[in-house]
Amino acid sequence: MSINTVLILLTCVISFLCLQNYGLMQKLIFDPVQIRTRKEYFRFITSGFLHGDLNHLIFNMITLYFFGERTVIFFEYLCKDNVFLGAVFYMAFYLLAIVVSSIPTYLKYKNVSGYSSLGASGAVSAVIFMNILYDPMSKIWIFFFFPVPAIVFGVLYMIYTIYSAKNKTDNINHDAHLYGALFGIVFTLIFFPEFCYNFLTIICPWCF
Asked: Beta strand pairing status for 139-142 and 146-149?
């Protein structure tokens, strides 16, 4: 069983438990005021294993399954085919993505009572964008019916996320999506620079 599958199962179990137990949900959810006043920094991590409903959970976990399995292989490659170290580094990347994608939200709402958010979307976005840099022309299936090149999906995703974050068109934490994606890009630039070179040779072949 891969570390990605373990993360998916763990997220499903914790999400199911919290959907059945409102009190537990409130103890683990991302609440900037509680983090600031009670120093409950664990919420930066635990909130990434919670989901508001089954649709939210299923969409994120299916996406993580398809993109995460290949990402685990990337980390094994980084660790010279050491499966254990690859799993450790992937887990660290995933958890760090949850934290980093939540920091802007914390800074924005740390003095706003009643605000909370949850979900793995920031980390999933980081995983997706690492894959986009690796193979920008691979097909991503929108709603499982409409295949588009990964690079097109990435551009549309960023435009939609930035617009929604600025205009607050719904209750989704689009800031986490945006900063998760940016974290995935920066992390890849640092640890997998060859992916970025490959990306540029595919997108801008005339430059090389």
From this structure: antiparallel
Contact in structure between 194 and 133 (CB atoms under 8 Å): no
* Cα 202 to Cα 103, 130, 133, 198, 199, distances in angstroms: 33, 15, 10, 6, 5
In angstroms, rounded to a whole number, what is the distance separating the alpha carbons of residues 42 and 154? Answer: 30
Residues 66-87 have pLDDT tens digits of 899 999 999 998 898 899 999 9
Number of continuous H segments (helices) and E segments (strands) in the chain:
10, 2
Range of the domain at 196: 3-207
CA dihedral (191, 197, 199, 204) positive or negative: positive
How far is the C-alpha of 152 from the C-alpha of 192, rounded, in Å?
Answer: 21
| Closest to 77 measured CA to CA, from 89, 86, 69 | 86
pTM: 0.91
Convert the pLDDT of each residue in 3-18 to its tens digit: 999 999 999 999 999 9
Alpha helices in 50-173 (DSSP H): 54-78, 83-109, 121-134, 150-167
Tally of domains in the chain: 1
CA distance 105 to 109: 6
CATH for 171:
1.20.1540.10
